[in-house]
# Entry
Amino acid sequence: MKYRTLGKSGIKVPALGFGCMRFPLVSGRKNSKRRCAVDIPEAVRMMHYAFEHGVNYFDSAWGYHMGWSEPVLGKALAGLPRDKVMVTTKSPVWLAKKPGDFRRLLSTQLRRLHTGYLDFYLLHALNAKSFERVRQLGVLDFLESAMREGRIRHTGFSFHDGPAAFKPIVDAYNWTTCQIQYNLVDTHHQAGQAGLRHAAKKGLGVIVMEPLRGGDLAGRIAPGIKALWDEYPGRRTPAEWALRWLWHQPEVSMVLSGMSTMQQVKDNIRYAGRSRIGALSKDELALASRVQRAYRKLRGIPCTGCAYCMPCPAGVAIPRNFSLYNDWCMFPGSDQARLEYRTWMDAANRASACKECGQCVPKCPQQLAIPELLKKVQAALARPSP
Ligand code: SF4
Ligand code: SF4
# Structure
C-alpha cells in the first residue's frame, strides 16, 4: 500500500480507504431497520484482508445500510488491533434537534462500533442550510468538547451541495479533513476541482468519495467511452483509469471506495499499490481529457455552470439542476443523479420550485430556455429509477 499525508495534520493515510456503505448482501435480502441484510462474515473477511494489505482506514456513517454499517464495522474491529486502525463515522446532523442530541448520537455510535473513540468524526452531508442550522445548535462547541474528552480525535465534514456552499464551510472551522464527491466527470459538480484545491490550500486533508460514481465510471460505461480508454496500448480497466486520475493529483489525500466483493478489494489494493502523485504521463492525461470531453458531449443541456442566471428569487439552484440532468444523460441506467436530486438536494432548490417568472432567461449567455428546461429536469429526476 502507498501512504499519503492528510493535509496539514501530517497523519499518514493509505491511498485507498475502505468505505463501509456497499458491503456484500445476503442474496435476496434487503436491509431494513429491523433486519440486517449484510453478509457479515464476508464483509468482515474483506475488511480484514484489506487491513492485512495496508488499508487501515475505515469509513462508516449512521445511516449506511439502514444503520447496520457501524455494527458490522464494529464486528470487524473486534478482530483488529484498534490502535493500528483509523475509524471514521459521521454525525447524522439531520437528527439533531437540540444541542444535547449531538452527544447522545455520538454515544450510540461508539456503542455500535464497540470502540471508546473515533479517529475522525465528520458532520454528515453538510449543505449551506444544514451547516447553518447545526452551527446555531452549537455543533462546533460539541466537537471541541468531544475532542477534549478523547471521544473523537479529529473533525471533518462530508459535503453535498453546490460549489458556492463549500468554501464558507471549509473556512468556518479548523477541520482536519473533508470528504467530497470528486471524480473524472464531477470536476465542476458539488465541491468540484476548485473546492478540492481550496480545501487543500487551507491545509485540510481531502478525502474523495464516489471515485467511480457509484460504479458508473467502472461498469456502466457509455458507448464510445470504453473504446477511447482502449486506445491506450497498455490496457487498463476504466476503474483503474478513474482511480489513477485521482491519485495523480497532489490535493487528493485518500480515495475511499465502497467495495462489495473480495475481487474489488483485491483489484483496488493492486491499483493503489501502483499509485503515485504525478504518475500520469502527458499522453495519459491527454487521453483522460479526451474521455472527459466525450462524457461532456453526452450532456443534454448545454449549461456551462457560469451561474450568471443566479440568484433565482424562488431559490432554484439552476446550474445544479442542469448539472444533475446532464449526469443522468451521461449515465443512462444509473440512479445517482435521481438519488441526489431526491435525497440530497433541498426541495426549495429543485427544478420543481420554479415559478416561471422568467427573470433568469435574459441573463443566460447560452440563451437557454431555463423554465422550460427545468420542467424537463423535474420530469426526468423526480421519480425513482424503474
Ligand atoms: S424562471 Fe424559474 S428559475 Fe428562472 S428566476 Fe424565475 S423562478 Fe427562478
Ligand atoms: S446562466 Fe445559463 S449557462 Fe450559466 S449557469 Fe445559468 S443556465 Fe447555465
Summary: The mean pLDDT is 94. The pocket of iron/sulfur cluster (ligand 2) is lined by residues 303-309, 318-319, 322, 363-364, 366, 368, 370 (CB under 6 Å).
